Write the structure tokens for this entry.
Amino acid sequence: MDNSKFNQADLISAVKACANTGYAGSLLSTSKAIGEFRIIAGDFVTPDAELANAISETAIALGCAVAFDEQTGAD
């Protein structure tokens, strides 16, 4: 996956803002992170699936487990 079209700092900020940390490590909800990324970056046109992939790669690189819980077609 090529995340070069996204600002890496925005992806990292969204992951850090939305990751839930507990005893077993960090867990990231993609739906929550997608919403946060859209606010941070002002990107309201990129499809959710594309953002979920970019965010999940960033989250995994930061040591987070990822829950893909976005709802296709939800507004």
Observations:
- The radius of gyration is 11 Å.
- The mean pLDDT is 90.
- The first helix runs from residue 8 to 18.
- Strands lie at 20-22, 25-29, 64-67.
